[in-house]
Amino acid sequence: MSVVISGIREPLVLGNKTYHQITEDICAPTERVPSKAWIIAFVIAACFLGMYLFAVTWTIWMGIGSWNLNRTINWGYDITNFVWWVGIGHAGTLISAILLLFRQKWRTGVNRAAEAMTIFAVICAGQFPIIHMGRVWMAPFIFPYPNTRGPLWPNFNSPLFWDVFAISTYFTVSLLFWYTGLVPDFATVRDRAIGWRKKLYNSLAFGWTGSAKHWQRWEYLSLVLAGISTPLVLSVHTIVSFDFATSVIPGWHTTIFPPYFVAGAIFSGFAMVQTLMLICRRVLNLQDYITLEHIESMNKVILLTGTVVGIAYLTELFISWYSGSLWEGFAFYHRLFGPYWWSYFGMMFCNVLSPQIFWKKSWRRNIELTFLMSIFINIGMWFERYVIIASTLARDFLPSSWSYYSPTWVEICLFLGSQGLFFTCFLIFTRVAPVVAIAEVKSILKAAGNQYAGKNTMPSHHDHSHEEEHDHAHH
Amino acid sequence: MKTLNKEVLFGLYDDETDLLNAVNAANKAHLDIMDVYTPFPVHGLDPALGLAESRLHIAGFVYGMTGTLTGFGFMTWVFTRDWPIIFGGKPYWSVPAFIPVTFELTVLFAAIGMVVTFYTICGMGPGVTNPTLHDRITDDKFCLAFQTNGMDAEEINKLKNFLSTSNASEVHQKNI
């Protein structure tokens, strides 16, 4: 096994683990009765889910008139929530695909939970355009299937139609990628279980045996899926940004949108991963697998993408002035000093200024501060979409149509309730599936966990790093 | 559960280095290895076992191209033959607008095709139960298995000796 061990990098698995101990630690949350904290969290999440179902039913029953959208502002909370959730859904596949290609070993600690988060976030996102249709039973019409209306096909030139394909492809591929990674770990749980749990995990494990040929194919599959998921993850938010960028609305009609949206998506996705991981590692006792090193790495990504997003905001502002376009100039003047000024400055504070504290190493490694920042960023990224959508639409070309939008209770319940849907799914996931990829952590244990305590322990971390340096010096 | 009518003699190793050494020793002794089972992918095992490189990625390319042609061909057919409509003054065959959907279908076809192929060729899938040799193979044991159908006691003893001298911590026999 040719592994390059860095003398600088910190170990990614702490606490002198053997392979068996890893299995024990990570399977434990699926095998014990739920803790009190889990039950309380689940009840709260389920209440929010109930509220969501009520608000959805209300919307469908009463119609979109139960929202405060109007002829000028015809996208409000709904599309804001949609873009926000899709953005959050970008971190999982980024971690599992792009970081796999970049051979970032720290991804093994967080990829499983991040991918689960992706899938649940995309589920939440997908609901909003559908209920926004009002007549939800018309939703299948967005797919090009042979129909009795001609057949009449959807408009393939429409970014909204591209979105349908982007989101549904993203969901499907993420789900397949996630599940393929889960199969060996479900087999681990299966081989430890008895009774009805054995039956359950037997069916979930698809008959995995751990044969060498199967592992070989599994690795190929993971690698190629990572390869095709990488452009996919970049394409999805690019296409979401096309919903805006291909329009002729000042403030939306900009070529900077695709990279700016993708950076924002990764930014908000990592923030949500931090929120979830910081709670998970504590509640599920996974501090040895999701270490401060993992948290710091993610904070670095947050700092980078937050800065990219900040530069994009400033570029937009600059171009709105430099272009000399009256309409662009007005749109941005209105963002800063119009009736939605509070959301613009909220966005600037949460997304651009506050992540800059992560230049300081000790703050990147501070758990409480990281948690607080992750909440800030979640809020800030929601504001960003609200600024783009509501504040831009509030001042259109015809001053007599200018208006202001604030949500009804139904829209607020939909937004808060979708969190209930998300957290209910996530809490069930933490009970059913291993939250950390067991096989992948084992495979990096010797290379990246210098505290490996099993048989044939490799030369100590320190000695080995010197050998490496020595080698490099000769090259 | 299906049975394979295989009599299997297998040794469990505590570490992948021991397993790799055992596999290499077995190759040297010209022993016919049935299979090797590990809790995680062990690098260096494929060449030792003489496993050919997987061709899954070639299949993936074919599936992906199928998606490309399906998406692009379908949209072309709809907008040039079946129901041509002018949108925004653009030509019927507005190729740049077809790129996003064509790309998504390429990825979708490649991913679904490869995953289905993977499970099919591995004999896995929903509801499938394949016989396993030992419960700790998916935990922390590395298993080297020999098929012993039709072998006499002497040959089996030879294999047993090989397993125990090559550092196997446990040696078992099982019919699967």
Structure description:
- The complex is a heterodimer of chains A (475) and B (176).
- Chain A is mainly alpha-helical and 475 residues long.
- Chain A has one domain (19-132, 155-445).
- Chain A has 17 helices and no strands.
- Chain B has helices at residues 16-28, 45-49, 56-82, 95-121, 153-165; strands at residues 7-13, 33-37, 142-147, 170-175.
- Chain B has a four-stranded antiparallel β-sheet, covered by helices on one side.
- In chain B, helix 3 packs antiparallel against helix 4.
- The interface between A and B is large, with 68 and 71 residues.
Compile the SSE list and pairings.
The complex is a heterodimer of chains A (475) and B (176).
Chain A (H helix, E strand, L loop, with lengths): L18 H13 L4 H27 L14 H12 L1 H12 L5 H26 L26 H34 L2 H10 L7 H34 L11 H27 L8 H31 L3 H12 L3 H13 L7 H4 L2 H28 L14 H24 L5 H11 L12 H14 L1
Helix pairs in contact in A: 1-16, 2-15, 3-5, 3-9, 3-14, 4-5, 4-8, 4-9, 5-6, 5-9, 5-15, 6-7, 6-8, 8-9, 9-10, 9-14, 10-11, 10-12, 11-12, 12-14
Chain B lengths: L6 E7 L2 H13 L4 E5 L7 H5 L6 H27 L12 H27 L20 E6 L5 H13 L4 E6 L1
Antiparallel strand pairs in B: 1-3, 1-4, 2-3
What would you call the quaternary organization? heterodimer
The tally of strands of chain A reads: 0
Unreliable sequence segments of chain B: none
Number of helices of chain A: 17
Number of strands of chain B: 4
β-strand percent of chain B reads 5-15%
Q: Report the span from N to C terminus of chain B.
A: 10 Å
Shape of chain A: globular
The CATH top-level class label of the largest domain in chain B: Alpha Beta
